[in-house]
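The record is kept unedited without comment:

——
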Amino acid sequence: MTLAYLPRLICLTLACFFLVNILMTVVVAVFSRRAIRKADRFPPRKAASFILGLRLVPVGLAAFAAIGLCVPSYMWFEPERVEEHVGFFCLALAFSGLAILGVATTRALRAVVESLIFFRRCRHSGNMRDDLGALVIASSRPLIALAGVVRPRLIMSQGIVDALNGEELAVVMVHERAHRESRDNLKRLCMTIAPGFASLDRAWVRLAEFAADEQAVAGDEKRALALASALVRVARVGQNPGTPRYAISFLGNACDLSDRVDRLLAPRPFAASARPRTTPLWISVVCLAAISFNPFTLRWVQSALEELLH
C-alpha cells in the first residue's frame, strides 16, 4: 500500500509501539515470578511501587519508543513529503498497535462510566458523615470501598458501620486514607487500562493492602489488633460485589486475608537495606531525553524504521 507522509508516520509510530510493547511484555513475563518473590522481602510501600513500575514498564517504554524516538527521527531525517510504499507486515503491526490503544481507551471510558454510575447511585441513597469522612448509604448490605480517581471518596454501608466498634472504625478510616494519599485508585486504573499480567496485578493489590495496614497501625499493637478484628468482622459479613473494578475494597483480595491478619498480629521486621534498587525517576528522564535527542540514535532509529516500513 502506498501512503502519504503523515499516514506513513502514524503507521510507523503504531507499529513501533506494538513491537516494543510486545517485546517488553515478554521480558517482564519471564522475570515476573522472580520479581514478585523478591518484592516480598521489601517493606510493603517500596515493594508495591516496585511491582507497579515493573507492571507499567512495557507500555511506558513502548510509548517512549513511539513518541520519543520514532516521531523525531522520522521528522528529522525524512523531510521529503512524498508518497512511499508500506509493506503488509508494517501495516499489520500498525493495526495491532491501534487495537491495543483502542482496548485501553475502551477500558478507560468504561471505568469512568462505572465510577460515575456507582457514585451517583450511592449519593442518592446515602448521606455524608463528617465525623467519619465517608458517604454512608442506608443499606444493610456490606460495602466499604474507596471509589473515584480524581477525588476518591470512601463509601460505606450502614451495615458495616453498625458491625464495627469505635476503635475498629477509626483504624479502618486511617487505612482507607492511606490508600487515598497514595493515589492507589489511580494506580489501579492505570493497570486496568494497560495490557498486562494478572499475577502482577494481584501482587500489587496484596502489597498495597499491606502498606495501608502498616500505615494505619503505625507500629501500635492495639491498633493492629483493632484492624485485624475489623478485617475478620467485615470478612464474615462479606463484601458487596457491585463496586467498580478499579475501586479499592477494604478486603482487597479475599485470599490474602489470612496473610494480612498474620502480619498485623506478628509484624515482620525489615532490615534497613531491604529495599528495591531502583533508579530515581529524574535520572531516568534525563537519560531517556539524552537518548531521544542524540543524532546518532535518531539516525539508527530511522534506518530501522526504513527496514520496518518496507
About this structure: The two ends are 10 Å apart (CA to CA). The CA atoms of residues 40 and 47 lie 7 Å apart. The mean pLDDT is 81.
